[in-house]
Amino acid sequence: MISTSAISSASDPQIACSELKAQLDLSLMTTIIFYCASSFDLSLLADAINSHFPDNECVGCTTAGEFNGAGYETDTIVAVGFHDSCFAIQSTLIENLTEFSTFDAQKTINSLRESIAEKALAHIDSNSFIFSLVDGLSAKEEVFLTNLDTFTNGIPHFGGSAGVGLDGNKTHVFYDGKFRTSAAIVMFINTKQKFSIFSVNHVDQCRSKLVVTDADARTRQVFEINGEPAASVYAELMGLSVDELDAEVFSLHPLAVKIGRDYYIRSIQRVNKAFYSLSFYCAVDKGIVLNEVSLVDINMPLLKKLQSIRNSLGSPHMVMGCDCFLRRIASVSKGVIDKTHAIQSEFNLVGFNAYGEHINGLHLNQTFTGVYISEEAYE
């Protein structure tokens, strides 16, 4: 056994945790990662987790949706238990993202490395990866991830930003028995299994270029594009009114920055009608060029990537993923959800719909980012 996943759709936290416990063999695992709908009463859920899993280290976050091999889920809690015979895991909490410095990043990575060395199952540098969960509305992901990546020494790193349902306004991570805001969790994972960290999007090519002429980088708010109110410019580009702009429009018609030869989507979060400005989930600033981009079939890049990894590493045991919630909206809107579910089933995708995805120091939007864990172990 390598790991075990579990899911519960019970709305009562005690019942949900009881159902998860029945699906997980706790005698085999120390660490459990979970992803929960923000519709839960989080204080009651914390109590339930602590009472049902007193001897396990439980870490997790709130989501904008969950998924497992059976497809996308809503109002559930999904958990993954990592078997101690295959994984050695050390985690730590970053309590205040605002004050997280390069010195803190160095101290964090050094401490995790020292701790994992005492229980490593395989070579640390070649058989380890880092997983991060971050408050998805902290607006601190870019600085946090850049600082952290400075000291990872080439160890691959991925993760996701916690999400929330349409009616919520806070995202949370869970560590040491509590749900927390403005915080992050960093996990150093050493394993005997073959694995591959990856990230894909479905950007095709640039259609037009827009220049941000007024913005507040601190709040990720763009006030003007090409010298005009940002929301009006974007709406006109889409052939819509500002009142028609919503999450579905944002998911199907994204804006992206170009770094080198690659485009990285900067997803729009909302329209602020008081200023006709646009708020984003990723970093934006005055002077940057936002590209209107066309998209390919949302499922094909992910399927091709997973098939390629399978050809190299063997059959998947599980793909632990962070899938942008706007990809989920686009999959439904485009009527391709059945194909999405087929991929989730074929490769046993387990994870959550995020407000942003992390890979090797970058904070991304509208990607599927994850780790492919093979059934095969390194010799």
From TrEMBL:
Signal peptide: none annotated. InterPro entries: FIST_C, FIST_domain_N. Residues 230-361 form the FIST C-domain domain. Pfam families: FIST, FIST_C. Residues 27-229 form the FIST domain. PANTHER family: BLR0328 PROTEIN. This is GfdT protein. It comes from Brumicola pallidula DSM 14239 = ACAM 615.
